[in-house]
């Protein structure tokens, strides 16, 4: 009995230690279409600061609208650009609907998945100005009331969350905002950074008066710059979200040398950043301690394991000298202030 008692004590000490070690971590949870996999539509992620601030990035079509139970509180909405696979022209038809290669979706209507979730969750809209105007208008239509600028204070432009209603927290490229829980001295600082990518919204997501004049020439409506983000969390972790972009010199200079991210979420893709370029960006330009590939536009895993011959596998093989963590849907990864994964990887 004595040894059993000791075992229980040891287990509880180990448990306490483990809880203590994980207390100051940033939690990152991919919200993909299929539990435990990295699938064709996957790019959505939830970031949770140790203080409790929660940000959602590029909900896309793998989140089933505002009622998706995986979302929880969304204090801040981030969107890299307005293409349908990021803003969410469609939303998930339900948990694990369809296959990993071809998930089932339904239309998100004029609201878009981003607009629907922002309206329902009372989120701050932390986007480039032109996109923020677009999303704010969609949220106004849903809620039937005007969306005002977020209350802010101080040089770091602090906004206290949770909010009572959605609000605009827009910036131009390079602008910063900070989001803090009430009573906390620290929070999450968010900066937009350059992304080399087009940024238009397709006609099915536009009101009729805007849509009709664009039909004859097959145009979409431009909505300002695409962007990436730098997130600086209260434990010191700096994360670069690339958004869709080609490989570019800013990854070395502004992002790598100045912001020095310890963790990068890097969007792969045959039309934007193929594996060879993405690996060069990770290894030589950005140089963060860890990389999470995203936006691979394929069923990259089966049973949670990388599929042979996939684009993601090709990328992983080319990355040297740093960790690569797969964004398996629903698996929460925890990172310390230096980009080291402490749990869930
Ligand atoms: Zn995309």
Describe the structure.
There is one protein chain. With about 350 residues, the protein is α/β, with parallel strands linked by helices. It has one domain: Ribonuclease Z/Hydroxyacylglutathione hydrolase-like (Metallo-beta-lactamase, Chain A), CATH 3.60.15. It has eight helices and 22 strands. The longest helix is centred in the first third of the chain and has 21 residues. The protein is globular and about 50 Å long. The structure holds zinc ion (ZN). The site of zinc ion has 5 residues, from helix 2.
Low-confidence stretches are 1-21
Rg, Cα atoms, Å: 20 Å
Give the neighbour order of strands across the main sheet: 9-7-4-3-2-1-21-22
The total of helices stands at 8
Which features does this protein show?
eight-stranded mixed β-sheet, 22 strands, 345 residues, disordered N terminus, globular, 24% helix, Metallo-beta-lactamase, Chain A, binds zinc ion, alpha/beta
Brief account:
Helix content is 24%, strand content 23%. The chain has 345 residues and is of the alpha/beta class. It has one domain: 4-Layer Sandwich (Metallo-beta-lactamase, Chain A).
Summarize the topology:
Layout: H1 2-22, E1 26-30, E2 45-48, E3 54-57, E4 76-78, H2 84-87, E5 90-92, E6 105-107, H3 112-121, E7 124-125, H4 129-143, E8 158-161, E9 167-168, E10 176-181, E11 188-194, E12 200-201, H5 208-211, E13 221-222, E14 227-232, E15 238-241, H6 252-259, E16 263-267, H7 275-286, E17 290-294, E18 301-302, E19 305-306, H8 311-318, E20 323-324, E21 333-335, E22 341-343
Parallel strand pairs: 3-4, 4-7, 7-9, 8-10, 15-16, 16-17, 17-20
Antiparallel strand pairs: 1-2, 1-21, 2-3, 5-6, 10-11, 11-14, 12-13, 14-15, 18-19, 21-22
Helix pairs in contact: 3-4, 6-7, 7-8
Bound molecules: zinc ion.
